[in-house]
Structure prediction request, 162 residues.
Amino acid sequence: MNEISRPKRRFKEYEKMPKLDRSEYQMEYRLNHKAEQHEYYLLHKTERCERQREYDLLHKEERAEYHRKWQLCHKESLRENSRNYYLSHKEQFRARAARRQRELGYNPLNTRFEGSVGHHITKDDVVFIPEEIHKSISHNIFTGKNMPEINGAALVYVGKQG
Prediction:
């Protein structure tokens, strides 16, 4: 891997500097060498991306845990960012909601009760099941992801209520 060669003399001077001077030196260095840093970034961009991709694949669980912890610690900023994104992309959200309303019908097969949510077992037929059951299996009617599993659980529940 190519590295930018630095004069050793400058590095030794840096080592001898007090900490406060180091941070000032670092800021000054970044300001005065932007072109060199950008050039290095462009030359090694693909290598850095590949290394990061490999690391992410090898440490999937650690990255997921870190991401969960970060989300728990930053709930307020996530909520604010989500709201700002929604406000700036309102038309896209409206178009998506309208598409779903056009595609999905409403033919209830049982009655609504407290704590229930409607689940489309087909594009038209809806059964009301407890929210815990509905959230227990992630699914998507448009892609068919996990639909046999969630439909089985929903029909078992409706059969018991029957």
